[in-house]
């Protein structure tokens, strides 16, 4: 059995260490600057459809086909504006095809 080694850190040392970790995570985009208030990024189905210029029915079809990312809490479905815009940039044919 190994003996545990305990270190003593000051509050300032811990704050500095946490700041370094958070900055490194931000650089790897695991933490986004806009994640401070995720409710601003949250869209209803109607808002998401308007953002993409499609009908709500089209958005629901895309969701069922797993073409777009979505979240569900209980019975409420919502979308991330940032993720929808990223998906639209990756797959511009999807948005263009729905407008014809």
**So, CATH architecture of the domain at 37-99?**
Orthogonal Bundle
Rounded to an integer in angstroms, the radius of gyration calculated over CA atoms is 21 Å
Shape: elongated
**Would you give the CATH topology of the domain at 37-99?**
Arc Repressor Mutant, subunit A
Structural class: mainly alpha
Count of individual beta strands: 3
List the helices and strands in order: HEHHEEHH
- Helix fraction by DSSP (H/I, runs of at least 4): 40-55%
CATH-level-4 superfamily name of the domain at 37-99: Winged helix-like DNA-binding domain superfamily/Winged helix DNA-binding domain
CATH C-level class of the domain at 37-99 is Mainly Alpha
Largest sheet strand order: 1-3-2
Largest beta-sheet details: 3 strands, antiparallel
């Amino acid at each position: 059995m190994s003996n545990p080694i305990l270190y003593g850190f000051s509050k300032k040392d811990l704050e500095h260490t946490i700041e370094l970790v958070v900055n490194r995570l931000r650089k790897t985009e695991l933490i986004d600057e806009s994640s401070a208030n995720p409710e601003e990024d949250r869209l209803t189905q109607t808002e998401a459809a308007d953002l993409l210029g499609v009908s709500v029915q089209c958005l629901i079809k895309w969701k069922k086909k797993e073409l777009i990312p979505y979240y569900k809490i209980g019975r409420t479905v919502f979308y991330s504006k940032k993720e929808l815009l990223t998906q639209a940039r990756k797959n511009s044919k999807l948005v263009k095809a729905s407008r014809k």
